[in-house]
Amino acid sequence: MSRDRRTRHVPRPLAERRTEPFESAEAAWFWFQRARLTRAEGARLPADPLAAARPCDPDDIGRAVRALALAGVLRSDHLRVLNRHGRRLMPPDGRVPEEAGDAALWAEALDRLATPLRRKGIVRRGYGA
Fold it and tell me: Which residues, including other chains, have CB under 8 Å from residue 35's CB and lie 6 or more apart?
C-alpha cells in the first residue's frame, strides 16, 4: 500500500521579537490608517526589519473603535473626524479656525480610545505623545 506523498506545507515559526506598544493612541491610530490605506491599494503593510514589532494587528485597533462606537462611547462625529484626519495622516490643527472643532473631537475620541488600547497593552499612555 503506497503512502500519500503530497508535500505538507507547515509554516515556519517567525523569529521571536519583543513587541513594543505605541507611545499613544494617536500613534496607534495613524499606524492603523496606514495599514488601511495600504490594503486599499492592494498591497500589504511592508515589513520594516528595523521597526518595532507591535503587540497587535491593525484590525485590533479597528475592532476597538467599532466596540466603542457600538457602546455609544464614540459618536458619528468622532468617527468622521478620526477617519478624515486619519486618511490625511495628520491630526487636525486647533490653531486653524476651520479645524478647531475637529481638533477638540479628535482629542476626545483618542482619549476614549486610549483606555481599551492601554488595557490590551497596545499603547503606553493616552492621547498625544
Answer: 45, 58
Phi, psi of 123, deg, nearest 5: -125, 155
H helices of 6-99, in order, are 25-40, 58-70, 76-88
Give 69's contacts (C-beta < 8 A, 6+ positions apart): 75, 79
Per-residue pLDDT of 34-53, as tens digits, reads 998 888 777 665 555 556 67
Q: Which of 58, 19, 30 is nearest to 127 (CA)?
A: 30
Per domain, the residue ranges of the chain are 25-41+57-119
Compare 26 and 10 and report the one with higher pLDDT. 26
